[in-house]
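SEQUENCE-TO-STRUCTURE ENTRY
===========================
What this section holds: a protein sequence and its matching fold, both as plain text.
Tokens: labelled as protein backbone structure tokens, with as many entries as the chain has residues.
Question of interest: how does this chain fold, as expressed in backbone structure tokens?
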Amino acid sequence: STMEETDREAVATAVQRVAGMLQRPDQLDKVEQYRRREARKKASVEARLKAAIQSQLDGVRTGLSQLHNALNDVKDIQQSLIDVNKDWRQSINTIENLKDVKDAVVQHSQLAAAVENLKNIFSVPEIVRETHDLIERGELLQAHRKLMDLECSRDNLMYEQYRMDSKNTHDMNLIHTYFGDMQKLSEELAKQLWMVVQRSLVTVRRDPTLLVSVVRIIEREEKIDRRMLDRKKQTGFIPPGRPKKWKEKMFNILERTVSTRIEGTQADTRESDKMWLVRHLEIIRKYVLDDLLVAKTLLDQCFPPHYDIFNRLLNMYHQALATRMQELAAEDLEANEIVSLLTWVLNTYTSAEMMGNSELSPEVDVNSLDALISQNVVDQLLSKYMSTLTSNIIGWLRKALETDKKDWIKETEPEADQDGYYQTTLPAIVFQMFEQNLQVAAQINEDLKTKVLILCLQQMNSFLTRYKDEAQLYKEDHLKNRQYPQCYVQYMIAVINNCQTFKESIISLKRKYLKSDMEDTLSISHANMDATLDIIAKEGCSSLLDEVFMDLEPHLNELMTKKWLMGSNAVGTICVTVEDYFNDFAKIKKPYKKTMTLEAHRRVVVEYIRAIMLKRISFKNAEERKEGAERMIKEAEQFRFLFKKLAAGSGEDTEGLCDIIEAIAEVIKLTDPSLLYLEVSTLVSKYPDIRDDHIAALLTVRGDASRDMKQTIIETLDQGPSQPNPNYVPIFKEITVPTLTVPKLLK
């Protein structure tokens, strides 16, 4: 069994210990000593064991006694519960009867509140009167304090009534009616507040404390609103008229005030004042800037920071302006009004004169402001501006030309510029108009300026074509009656000079208003205009020369006639007439005048040679030939002298033209007919455009060459070489020789 096992283990352990103690023989002497030690140990262990068993037994005894007591207690409780149960069953009826007590308690608390409020209730009419007086006197803070007390009394009464009997609307209405005047007070006070808010930008300068009081009242009301809404969440009750939302109302009133302020700045209409829009916009600019500066420096300090009053106002002004600008943009604006509006919206609004004012920064950042009118509307206005401007420019140009044409028929000479060149005011008027429109467009933006410049030059192009046609008509009308207009020559000179002015003005306009990278887009139309102007000038010059030669005609008809040979003064008259005309032509500007002089010189020589080729005279003998030839050489010299004088300073070499007359004179003067062929061939080699009929005519004028001789000379010439002067401009090819017609023969 377990006991035996334990004994065995104990013996084995003992044997081991003893074996351990008696390892060596000398330890045997100490056996007694060992035994005593072990006996002591054993005694000690036994004593400890006894003590432990003893204390265990004590514990068990105590536990048993406690269990016994507990059992008795449980029995007592069980008995008590039975008794309680019995009592409770008996007293259920008694509890039912206590409901009256509970009702009495509720009523008591209400009555206590009512008694508390009675003094307030009875004094309601009195307080209403006092509050009304305070409002009248403008003591708004005290008035509001009393109003809050009144509202507090009413609200508490109503709340008690609601708690007691939420369905009893009759009693609720009773309270509501009793406090009815109080509602009027609240409205009256609000009216005062809104008046102050409407005038806040004025009030803040005169009486900032009044504004601060108003803000404090609004803040108090906001706080009560919040409290009432919280209570509604918990109890479901909210007094009539809550939430008042006075802060929201205040911002609405500010917004309306701002709108009215901006709309109210339009004092005039187009009918009463051409400049109505400019004035309207300027007043808006001034008002808005002043208001915002006041708002930033003064108003901001009267409101709590969370109102963010300056930014809210800034936003309101921006919105009101956007609305106003859109209204204006929708009106039927004239071109200059569109410019005023766009300049204001796109430039003035963000400039230092308004939102970009240094005193408004950093709160106002012009870069983050939205556009006042959409890009779409801007584009519509710009295209309307461009189409209006187009028709305006067409009209202005037409009118300018009509006015100029009226000058052409005046009986007084045109004005001259500072250098003495004739001109009319047309180029100045046209380019002044272009300049004005370009400066206006530049106020809006670069892009518009370029568009307007292109428009001006396009219109200029078609205008010049009309100008050319009008100059042509002017000339034709004059030819019908050369006495009229009286100053035809002078005005034609002015037209020619205008061409040069137009050319210069176009260049300077482009230089001033066109970016160099745009140059190419206009080069074609520029070339067209230059070409048109050259044509006008050229036709003008040639019509002036026509005038000269019409006057010279009777004198040219006298050349190479019997009368001429007898000693007429035709060439003298021709020279005087040409010089006289050229006194006027001195008023033509340089490039054109130079061409005129050359052309006149050339035409005089051509007409002279044509007179020879007309065979009006046939010299009878060597004497006549000599006389005729010398006269021709003398007259060539007269022409040479005249044109040298006219071309003075222009460095033009036209010597060669008169040489032709002299070369022909040499052929006529020749006395030895056998040398005739040589002389003629020299002439032909110098002037290779001489035709056979010219030579035939020349020999006819000489008067001594037989038909066979003419034939031989002409046939032989065809083989000869030619060595003309490289600068020679063919002159004979324009000269026709008349063939003998039957009537001539009959004569």
